[in-house]
Amino acid sequence: PDAPGYEATVNPSPSHMVLSLDPAGDLSMVTILSLGSNDIGGTVLHIAPETILSGNPNFDRIVDAYRLEGADRARRVVANLIDVNVDEVTVLDQAQWQLLTTPVGSIPVDIEASLTELGDDGPMVVYPAGNVIVAPSDVSSFLGWVNPGEHPIDRSARHEAFWQAWLARITASEDPDIVPGEVDSGIGRFVRGIAEATPLIEVPLATPLTLESDVPGTEIDIPGLRLFVAEMIPFPLPASPGDRPTVKLLDGVGGLDLAGVYTPPIVRNRGRVITIGNVTPEFGVEQTSLVYHDRKWEAEAQAIAAALGATEINFEAEDDVVFDVTVIIGEDQGLALGD
Q1: Cα dihedral 148→75→195→155 (10° resolution)
Q2: HEC readout, the chain
Q3: CA 101, CA 334: separation in Å to the nearest integer?
Q4: Nearest-5° angle of CA 176, CA 181, CA 185?
Q5: Is the dihedral of CA 114, 120, 121, 122 positive or negative?
Q6: Which tens digit of pLDDT belongs to each residue from 144-191?
Q7: Phi first, then psi: what are they for 223, rounded to 5°?
């Protein structure tokens, strides 16, 4: 790996989407999971199903896509929203949530507001604010709960608190079957891996809105969300095939941290790094350069070049090239980073 001419193919970062359903079968949360290096630790990102799909001609919100066309359509609209695809999708209905959480037993969760329902004599508190105990059979109901007359955005904080508590119970357990199912694939792999280290659990800031006919919606900062996703999934799959230019990233200096330092700005500017390596025949490249081979990627190439401070940008038309963009990091970047 340290020798000039070395190249390695980069595998996409593992990612997983969880679609949580309430007892009625409606979507209560979209959760994106990513794993850290060697499947240790990771990130949990919750996106409210009422999130507005700006510019989507078919659906106003994520939940509308799920209601009308099911889990696969929901996956696709979320992929377009975050500009990244995911490897796998798991739908957790009431029965699946119970199966998944039964090994840890009842889970203590801190909630800020009481959960109530309307009874014959008015509102009745079912879960008082503070620390509550959630049985496996009640997880789906607890996560999908909406108090009478309230906006469903409050579920986001509850999902965050629940996942924090559930992962903590998994971390503390020595039972190898604390998470049922496969160890090396599926949601079992992700939950086990994330629980191996302190997880990052994120809920993007959202503004509650009321749409036509009193339909609840939430508005989020989509550019900010995409920047966060680019950090949590450093080597992403494109939202749709061909959505991102493929990039070969080469070290022209020797010893540079290509994955940790130079890949993130490329991904933030819609590049997809599929090969990293070193220049040939020798190190000592002075200037950072970028070459792209298709005019349709000119805007992305210019954005990547600007993010990296590339001083040389060239277009070379080639029909049979494997990569859309080749980036070589030179000594000017090493000096800029204080190396």
Answers
A1: -10
A2: CCCCCCEEECCCCCEEEEEEECCCCCEEEEEEEEECHHHCCEEEEEECCCEECCCCCCCCEHHHHHHHHHHHHHHHHHHHHHCCECCEEEEECHHHHHHHHHHHCCEEEEECCCEEEEECCEEEEEECCEEEEECHHHHHHHHHCCCCCCCCCHHHHHHHHHHHHHHHHHHHCCCCCCCCCCCCCHHHHHHHHHCCCCCEEECCCEEEEECHHHCEEEEECHHHHHHHHHHHCCCCECCCCCCCCEEEEEECCCCCCHHHHHHHHHHHCCCEEEEEEECCCCCCCCCCEEEECCHHHHHHHHHHHHHHCCCEEEECCCCCCCCCEEEEECHHHHHHCCC
A3: 49
A4: 100
A5: positive
A6: 999 998 999 999 999 999 999 999 999 999 999 999 988 888 999 999
A7: -60, -40
Integer angstrom CA distances of residue 294 from 63, 247, 329: 37, 12, 21
Question: Beta strand 289-292 with 325-329: parallel, antiparallel or unpaired?
Answer: antiparallel
CA distance 255 to 333: 13
Q: What global pTM score does this model have?
A: 0.91
- 184: which residues sit within 8 A by CB, 6+ positions away? none
* Residue 9 CB contacts under 8 Å (≥ 6 apart), including other chains: 274, 275
pLDDT, averaged across the chain: 93
Each residue's pLDDT tens digit, 69-101: 999 999 999 999 999 999 899 999 999 999 999
Dihedral sign, CA of 10, 4, 316, 263? Answer: positive
d(CA 295, CA 118): 61
Picking from 271, 262, 250, 230, the residue whose alpha carbon sits closest to that of residue 339 is: 262
Q: How many CB atoms lie within 10 A of CB 72?
A: 10
Distances (CA, A) of 153 to 125, 201, 202, 212, 269: 19, 16, 14, 17, 30
Report the candidate in 315, 316, 227 with the shortest Cα–Cα distance to residue 268. 227
